[in-house]
């Protein structure tokens, strides 16, 4: 598969959340094989041109480190998918094997060591990592080894244009696409202003929003950037207010929380808050302790990813009863199902063969919504289109899902947000 050019422009988004209990190093439902981490990194062996008949899935999620609360649901999503694949007959007549490893967070080199360990286990596909930073760091290893890498939660726009030899995919949309989604959800026939932090994500969302508004009859009437050196929130608001927008979008990282609070207070004072205001994935957070009561009442938010229904949550808990936060479980599950379907269609389990078939099994064919159903379609047809728990997926030429699934949220008077609905946009 040739190098893919950029189709559109996670860092892991930091979201204030209630602390979740400490995570185990592995899942009770996982294969009982231990999870050692080598003390020294060894060169990743190259994958052979064709597989050995057994599809081996390796996971890289942070069971330790600052983002460890994300790992349990993703590991359980993969384990559930593997179980269901094997119950349906496996891949090309052989059971799928899964190995679970700890990526740690971006402050350590645990991800590299765990990746090398998975290569020693002859993994064909990596589900993970959760972090955009780690995905970019591990990509050269994946390219050298010829393994497909599918992240359920890495959202950085930078991943779209990397030199990946067609091996990097994700079942979660790029943060840049929030701009296109917001245009569809909130911008139709409206005047829109955007206040954005001048980093890669902020600029990408700004550009996607501007492009999206032209397609829905909206107008971008103001775009105001700010940075860590910006100290005058009132000046930002005066520019926005003069444009008389119907909708205001604030795009800023959690790391800019002091400035975020100042801007939110200034917007509220200028009567530009409430239902007019939209927060985005990086700053959608619990502000109950940070802002006066009522500041964010009726403010909207958008966040990439699906909210699993009760039936899927029950299935996930059958893989690991200790799961409480289901974030990215659906995306991890779908990544695993897609890898198995790609290996089935390719008739080969090697990483390169899986990667080459992923786009085809995710779009353009007969729709199917489970591994077993897709196998039934393949008995009489050659082209399938898997629509998963996380949404339609449909990989583009950059390995990004189009369209994508987003959750819409609304704040109450306590400055906490709650789920309203799911939209498919972008």
Automatic annotation (TrEMBL):
GO terms for cellular component: membrane. It holds the Pfam family Peripla_BP_6. The keyword Transmembrane does not apply. Keywords: Signal. Transmembrane segments: none annotated. Residues 1-31 form the signal peptide. Belongs to the leucine-binding protein family. This is Amino acid ABC transporter substrate-binding protein. Residues 55-362 form the Leucine-binding protein domain. The lineage of its organism: Bacteria, Bacillati, Actinomycetota, Actinomycetes, Micrococcales.
